[in-house]
Amino acid sequence: MPTYVTSPSGYQKMQIVENTVVQFHYALADASGEIENSRKHEPVLYLHGQPGLIDGLVEALEGHQAGDRFTVELHADKAYGPRKDNAVQKVQVKHLQGAKKWRPGMVAMIQTDDGPRQVTIVKVGLSQAEVDSNHPLAGKDLTFDIEILSVREATPEELAHGHAHGAGGHHH
Ligand code: ZN
């Protein structure tokens, strides 16, 4: 059951618990500065309790409510994990998704047995490329500035699908 708390002004706000749909903005930074800011596109919409966000962020969001602004500092282990050595592998250029021409440093998607995965181009030839399968944010300590925009109960349809519907969420 969702939990409500009474705010100082007297009206009730829903807290982030399992099976609530949460909309939030974030700015993501590492030691060298800002990496991403959702205000440049649209806020994130997600169903709390379903996989998708990194664990450290899910833990930090738990219990917050609309209007909350806070900072979450995540050590690499709680974010995208440590960087692995020997993570460079060869793939066919035709299997790289996301651009027509590739240069070292660009991030591509490839399909793996475990689903889609982001890789970073190390070297690219005519038919083969070397890619680093570490997540681009692996090994980095990250800081998220979070602003919770809304928290609501998930609809039965969203619970059945396992994801949130609406702007920033899934569209069918
Ligand atoms: Zn759906």
From TrEMBL:
Its EC number is 5.2.1.8. It holds the Pfam family FKBP_C. It is an enzyme of class 5 (isomerase). Its main location: cytoplasm. GO terms for biological process: protein refolding. Transmembrane segments: none annotated. Residues 19-83 form the PPIase FKBP-type domain. GO terms for cellular component: cytoplasm. It catalyses: [protein]-peptidylproline (omega=180) = [protein]-peptidylproline (omega=0). GO terms for molecular function: peptidyl-prolyl cis-trans isomerase activity. Keywords: Chaperone, Cytoplasm, Isomerase, Rotamase. Belongs to the FKBP-type PPIase family. PANTHER family: FKBP-TYPE PEPTIDYL-PROLYL CIS-TRANS ISOMERASE SLYD. This is peptidylprolyl isomerase. It comes from marine sediment metagenome. The lineage of its organism: unclassified sequences, metagenomes, ecological metagenomes.
